[in-house]
Amino acid sequence: MIWRKIAGTLVLLGGTSVAAAAPNAAPPAAPGFSSCEQRYTATGLPKMKSDGSDDGPIELCRAGYALAFNPDTRTPDWVIERLPLDWLTGKAQRKNNFHPDPDVDTLIVGKGPQKSDYSRSGYDQGHQAPAGDFKSSQPMTDQSFLLTNMAPQVGIGFNRNIWKQLETDVRGWILCGGRKELYVVTGPVFNDDGDGKWLKKRVRVPEAFFKVIYDAQNKRALGMLLPNKKLDTADLPGYAVPIADIEEKTGIVFFPALTKRQQNVLKKNAGTLWGTNDNCTTDTGE
Fold first, then answer.
1. What is the average pLDDT score of the chain?
2. In a domain, 122, yes or no
3. Are residues 46 and 185 in contact, defined by beta-carbon separation less than 8 angstroms?
4. Which of 29, 75, 118, 217 has the fewest C-beta atoms lying within 10 Å of its C-beta?
5. 192 falls in which pLDDT band (50, 70, 90)?
6. How far apart, in Å, are the Cα atoms of 238 and each of 129, 133, 168, 188, 244?
7. Residue 188 is inside which H or E element, if any?
8. Which of 127, 135, 179, 211 is an active site residue?
């Protein structure tokens, strides 16, 4: 079962119909979106500054991540992972089985992204929660190929190069950096004017992508903002920015469970990429 919150009411997604809970009904037992909320209590789930509208994003809870899907852009607004060490090793295989999300297609017929939207578009189906983050579980790896976890990314020079390197670095900070887990939020950035490119007049092409990484144990955070175009992978460290800048560009509030003072400390300054030791193996999986 997958649940979405609409104006404070929990709505069940899946099956052949959409059923709204009675106003005074108790929250459903897990699995449901509440189980995702519980998983991210240390940081809180990201919040849009415009939250509260009935036309807000569709909140989806997955085994490996949670996301807010935007029916207008047909991309996520954000995808969050709580990424532990034991998820990063295992025998799960990448099958490249990109497929529509039945939960979204059930709720809003025709609104969910389709494989045909990306076909011959010149853009990659860019994972927001990477498949390589779920090596311990084949079902979690397969679930990362839902099209609601994708956004159009330039392929050569971006998705297949500098962006993949950033994803690999994040895993390395856990595998080889002495961290038990990291919280990672990923998503697209669009211009405010609403102009820009669209795939088949259905899926909006982002101008940039962000990652916000939080190390709860060491109370450190890092914001990365990369334009969606061919870039030099060697320049990756130069795309670190204050998390406050990402909030301003996206309208997303990160770490809402932290105090205002804690948030200000983490968000006001541009950080630097965290290092790993030389024994960290190169991971080429997305």
1. 86
2. yes
3. yes
4. 29
5. confident
6. 22, 24, 17, 19, 17
7. strand 181-189
8. 127
pLDDT tens, residue by residue, 59-97: 999 999 999 999 999 999 999 999 999 999 999 999 999
Determine the residue type at 73.
T
Q: What's the domain count of the chain? A: 1
Domain presence at residue 48 = yes
Contacts of 269 (CB under 8 A, 6+ apart): 242
Contact between residue 129 and residue 84 where contact means Cβ atoms under 8 Å apart: no
Q: Is residue 24 part of a domain?
A: no
Average pLDDT on 175-184 reads: 94
The answer to whether 159 touches 124, Cβ cutoff 8 Å, is yes
CA–CA distance, 267 with 265 (Å, rounded to integer): 6
Question: Do residues 189 and 225 make contact, with C-beta atoms less than 8 angstroms apart?
Answer: yes
CATH of the domain at 137: 3.40.570.10
Distance CA(133)–CA(148), nearest Å, equals 17
**pLDDT classification of 152: cutoffs 50, 70, 90:** very high
pTM for this prediction? 0.86
Residue 35, CA distances (Å) to 29, 49, 101, 135 in order: 8, 23, 20, 22
Residue 270: count of CB within 10 angstroms of its CB: 16
Residue 234 in any domain: the answer is yes
| Spatial distance between the Cα atoms of 98 and 143, rounded to a whole number of angstroms | 9
**127 in catalytic set:** yes
Give residue 263's domain range: 41-267
CA torsion, ordered 144, 222, 239, 165, to nearest 10 deg: -40
Cβ-contact 262, 214 below 8 angstroms: no
Where is 250: in which H helix or E strand?
helix 243-250
Encode burial over 186-208: b for 16+ CB neighbours within 10 A, e otherwise: bbbbbeeeeeeeebeebbbbbeb
Eight-state DSSP code of residue 81? E
